[in-house]
Write a structure and sequence with these properties.
With 150 residues, the protein is α+β, with helices and mostly antiparallel strands. The chain has helices spanning 15-25, 34-42, 85-94, 97-100, 113-117, and strands at residues 4-8, 45-51, 54-63, 68-76, 104-107. Strands 1-2-3-4-5 form a five-stranded mixed β-sheet, sandwiched between helices.
Length: 150
């Protein structure tokens, strides 16, 4: 397999490919609009894996860069899975100086526990201390909304 190059920053991401994967192939964001994906990348630390100039993997961290990071939307295109690409992306992010100082790193996954455990992610230390407002399909309510001003 050719060399995998890691790039960061929304400006280096193939937003159309990321949107297509999330909208059609992910179990967590099916039907999500392009606008929501585009805006979510603007406010995240984006990481992409590239082979021969084509983006084959993606993940982002929603973070303040000092205390907290939520790892989200990680995927590798099916033809490139099993080649260590997700490990390379995670290792890259976790090696960043800002990432090393985060007090808490969290993610939610239904199928990749083994991968993340290799990077020291564990079950919640105090699950009873975390609360949530959970709207798993809220992204479907904003399909046509283009302006996401605060």
């Amino acid at each position: 397999m050719p060399e995998v190059i890691i790039k960061t920053g929304k400006e280096n991401m193939d937003v159309k490919m990321i949107h297509r994967f999330l909208q059609e192939d992910s179990y967590w964001a099916k039907g999500i609009s392009y606008s929501l994906v585009d805006h979510s990348l603007t406010h995240s630390f984006c990481t992409g894996a590239f082979v021969n100039g084509e983006q084959v993997g993606f993940g982002r961290v929603i973070t303040d860069y000092y205390t907290f990071g939520w790892f989200a939307d990680f995927f590798v295109l099916p033809a490139y899975r099993g080649k260590g690409i997700s490990k390379k992306m995670l290792a890259y992010i976790l090696d960043q100086p800002w990432s090393k100082r985060l007090r808490r790193k969290i993610l939610n996954t239904s199928d990749a526990h083994g991968l993340y455990r290799q990077f020291q992610f564990k079950d919640l230390a105090n699950a009873s201390g975390l609360l949530e407002i959970y709207h798993p399909t809220v992204h479907l309510e904003y399909k046509e909304e283009a302006d996401f001003s605060r």
